[in-house]
Design brief:
The protein has about 425 residues and is of the alpha+beta class. It contains 22 helices and eleven strands. The chain has three domains: about 1-150, Beta Polymerase, domain 2, CATH 3.30.460; about 240-365, Orthogonal Bundle (cca-adding enzyme, domain 2), CATH 1.10.3090; about 375-425. The strands form three sheets. The protein has a seven-stranded mixed β-sheet.
Length: about 425
């Protein structure tokens, strides 16, 4: 296992050496644990470190932060702390055991040995540790055959009550299964199905389910994860109104190239929140009020809710782009939408005319702005000022249609629009 540590990101090597030195000076046992160990053994990139201390993790982390003059944050409830290094962070945890008052509850914790700490984890592949003490630096500690399951490509729980203790582990099992192209071990799959049949998700705070669902949708190729949720009949348990069909999966397949098209062609625009587009692919057939209830129940943020609900307001409006229209109609239809909405519609709509108009908007129309300002209109003697809103709206649409390039062109057109507005009053 020493060779695995030698292959870790060079950035982390002096940090590990420093941890080892401090552990020996304080005479405490320190271990690299969990997903970091798993990813090291799989040759995956490591971004952050998880450390277990068989002592007071907060005290240890505080001293470590002082040595390196880094920001330190403690969490007394769980005996944990975080030290921040540039774009990385290190989480320190006191070795602990966990007990659950009831299914789906947050655990009660107390200090324990490393073996007990690893037993509380979700799967065997995440229940391995590497010693960082100098006496056995780099030694793999594997009480529960995680290395063997890693080699076999199996996701296995550590005990029979795992999914009922924390039903969100079912979603994590799917996430690891699909991410690594592993399989749920036979008995683990049976336990998962039993928990699903008991509707275990009802026992979990919906906000925790949201966090797991978002993590899943942030993975590469989210449609694979969604398909697995469908196969295990989980989505209707999360919300009884979600019933996917073949058309929905066809759209989910189309979302991926739509996102890639956007990223390749329009790098100057805002970066997409890809996961939100896939969530739209799951929810778009719900009634607006059902989608709103789902988003409220699971605690999605206001901006996320606005973007998803705008689908329902614009589903019919987008269809007007399936014909020859003036450029300002394209702008007027698409400009109120978020980039996530637009790319969802690009995947959803099969009509070539609609796709072409979306491309025109993103390529040529989205950044069209007027040079003329309200102060310019005042200097030119335009009164009353209550007409300014109408003037600017019509002027912008005319500029889009006619392709004005200069301020003088805008001023000439503003006079025409102003005269027309006055004559109607």
């Amino acid at each position: 296992m020493v060779s695995k540590l030698k292959n870790i990101n060079p950035y982390f090597k002096p940090i590990l050496e420093s941890l080892s030195g401090l552990a020996d000076r304080l005479s405490v046992r320190v271990y690299l644990v969990g997903g970091v160990v798993r990813d090291l053994m799989l040759g995956e990139k490591i971004f952050d470190l998880d450390i277990v201390i068989e002592a007071d993790a907060i005290e240890f982390a505080h001293k470590f932060a002082e040595i390196h003059k880094k920001q330190f944050k403690k969490h007394h409830t769980f005996g944990t702390a975080t030290v921040f290094f540039d774009n990385h962070h290190i989480d320190f945890v006191t070795a602990r055991s966990e007990t659950y008052s009831f299914s789906g509850a947050l655990p009660k914790v107390k200090p324990a040995s490393l073996k007990e700490d690893l037993l509380r984890r979700d799967f065997t592949i995440n229940a391995m540790a590497i010693s960082l003490n100098k006496s056995d630096y780099g030694k793999l500690i594997d009480f529960y055959s995680g290395e063997n399951d890693l080699k076999k490509g199996l996701i296995r729980v550590l005990h029979g009550d795992s999914f009922m203790d924390d039903p969100t582990r079912i979603l994590r099992a799917i996430r690891f299964e699909q991410r690594f192209s592993f399989k749920l071990e036979r008995h683990t799959l049976k336990l998962a199905k039993e928990a699903i049949s008991k509707n275990a998700f009802n026992l979990v705070n919906p906000h925790r389910l949201r966090e797991e669902l978002v993590l899943m949708l942030e993975e590469p190729l989210p449609r694979r994860y969604i398909k697995r949720l469908y196969e295990l009949r989980i989505l209707p348990l999360i919300d009884r109104n979600i019933r996917l069909n073949k058309k929905d999966f066809h759209i989910l397949v189309k979302i991926e190239p739509a996102i890639e098209f956007y990223k390749a062609r329009f790098k100057r625009h805002r970066q997409l929140e890809d996961w939100l587009i896939y969530l739209m692919g799951i929810l778009y057939r719900l009634k607006s009020q059902d989608a709103s209830k789902f988003l409220d129940t699971f605690g999605f943020r206001k901006g996320e809710k606005i973007r998803i609900l705008s689908l329902y307001d614009n589903m019919d409006k987008i269809k007007q782009l399936n014909r020859k229209v003036l450029s300002h109609v394209i702008y007027k239809t698409l400009n109120p939408l978020s980039f996530e909405n637009i790319i969802f519609f690009y995947a959803y709509c099969q009509k070539k005319a609609i796709k072409r108009h979306i491309e025109i908007f993103l390529d040529k129309l989205i950044n069209v702005r007027l040079r003329l300002k309200g102060e310019d209109l005042r200097k030119l003697g335009f009164k009353p000022t209550t007409l300014y809103g109408k003037i600017f709206e019509k002027l912008l649409y005319t500029k889009i249609d006619k392709g004005f390039k200069t301020l003088e062109e805008e001023i000439r057109e503003a006079h025409i629009i102003f005269e027309n507005c006055q004559s109607k009053h």
